[in-house]
TrEMBL record:
<protein>
    <submittedName>
        <fullName>YjjG family noncanonical pyrimidine nucleotidase</fullName>
        <ecNumber>3.1.3.5</ecNumber>
    </submittedName>
</protein>
<dbReference type="InterPro" id="IPR052550">
    <property type="entry name" value="Pyrimidine_5'-ntase_YjjG"/>
</dbReference>
<dbReference type="GO" id="GO:0008253">
    <property type="term" value="F:5'-nucleotidase activity"/>
</dbReference>
<dbReference type="InterPro" id="IPR023198">
    <property type="entry name" value="PGP-like_dom2"/>
</dbReference>
<dbReference type="Pfam" id="PF00702">
    <property type="entry name" value="Hydrolase"/>
</dbReference>
<dbReference type="InterPro" id="IPR023214">
    <property type="entry name" value="HAD_sf"/>
</dbReference>
<dbReference type="InterPro" id="IPR011951">
    <property type="entry name" value="HAD-SF_hydro_IA_YjjG/PynA"/>
</dbReference>
<dbReference type="InterPro" id="IPR036412">
    <property type="entry name" value="HAD-like_sf"/>
</dbReference>
<keyword id="KW-0378">Hydrolase</keyword>
<dbReference type="InterPro" id="IPR006439">
    <property type="entry name" value="HAD-SF_hydro_IA"/>
</dbReference>
Amino acid sequence: MFEHRVTDIFFDLDHTLWDFEKNSALTFEKILFDHSVKVTLDDFLGVYAPINLEYWKLYRENRVTKAELRYQRLRKTFDAIGAVVSDDIIHILAHEYIENLSSFTHLVPNALEILKYLSPKYRLHIITNGFQEVQEKKLIGSNIHHFFDQIINSEMAGVKKPHPYIFELALTKANVEPRNTIMVGDSLEADILGAKGMGMQVLHFNSNREPDHDHSIMINNLIEIKRIL
C-alpha cells in the first residue's frame, strides 16, 4: 500500500494518540470548579474549542507567542460567552491548565493496541508541536513513553510543524531516510503536508473530520492501521 519499505513510524501526539479533547475537558472541569468560575462546562468548551484551534494555527505561524496563546484563548472564550473573569484569574487558570493537563491520561481509542501491534515491527517516534514541559508528562502518565525511540517537540526544534526543519531534525535523530518512514497525524496542514513535503510517506488519522482529500490514505480509527501495515 506504501511505495517504499517502512522501517520507522512517526506519530503526532495530541488528537492522534493522546485524547486531547477528553483530557482537556476534564482539566477545565477541575480548574473552573477550583476557582469558582461560574460557567457551564459544555458552553465553555463549545466556544473554546474553535478559538483554541485558531490560536494554535497562529502559534504555528509564529503570529502569537506561547504566553499569548495561553492567555488569549481563555480571554476570548470568556468574553464570547459573557462571563466576567478578571485577568488575574485568567492568568491563574492558564497556568493551572498546563499544570493539570498531563495528569489526565486518556488515550484515543485503540492507541495502545496499535502501538503494541507496531512496536515489534517498526521503530516508533513522536513529532509534536506541544510544549516540552507538558508532552513528556503526557507520554509518561499515559504509560506509552517506552514505545518511542525519538521524541521531537517544536521547542526543541525551534520551529513548529509544518516547518521542514522539525521533520529534518526528527529524521536525523532517527537516522532514517524519509522514504522509509510514515508520518501519522491528525492535521492535514501540520502533519500530512508538512511530512509529505520532506519526502516522507504519510497516513492521515482524520480525528478532526476534515474533508476527504487525495494527499494520503485517510483512516478514521487507529485500528485500521492493522490492515495497512
